[in-house]
Amino acid sequence: MRSYRFDDLTGLASLRLHEEDLPTPQRGELLLRVLAVALNYRDIAMLHGTYPRPPEKGLIPVSDAAAEVVAVGEGVEDVAVGDRVVGVFHPRWFGGALPAAQAARSYGVGRDGWLTEYKVVSQEAAVALPRGLSAVDRVFGFDEAPAAFAHLESGRHLGKIVISVHPD
Predict the structure, then answer these.
(1) pLDDT at 31
(2) Which residues contact 104 (CB under 8 A, 6 or more apart)?
(3) pLDDT of residue 137
(4) How far is Cα 44 from Cα 59, in angstroms, rounded to an integer?
(5) Low-confidence ranges of the chain (pLDDT < 70)
(6) What fold characterizes domain 2-154?
């Protein structure tokens, strides 16, 4: 399979294509074929060295993606081969305050991200893609939702026109 990795942290020129072995899902894991990725502000900030947490050298970048399940490990019950899913940004955070260690281990910073053909994740690290949405709709639509919500919450929109665009 092909994966892009930052061989060093000197900018876009250090992003290199690598041929790697296809991973095998273990108990409770999914093997995903990545269908689409979103390049977010966060990913660009890491590339320019302006993100608060510097990424580790050699990691696969990109924090958001949509994928298709191509294999499941033993014990996986709620997800099946052929299901389309989206990755969970903090795959091991299940509630409460975000532990500092989780922020440091997010995709593209402290663990491999999504700029790869195939990725193994735990079954809890993927959520079903809503029916009727393509993988591209997902990564280029919903990724803007947190930014839009933060803008609305800030009050900066008061007295201005707010436009909401959605696929329906």
Answers:
(1) 98
(2) 53, 110
(3) 58
(4) 15
(5) 103, 133-168
(6) Quinone Oxidoreductase; Chain A, domain 1 (3.90.180)
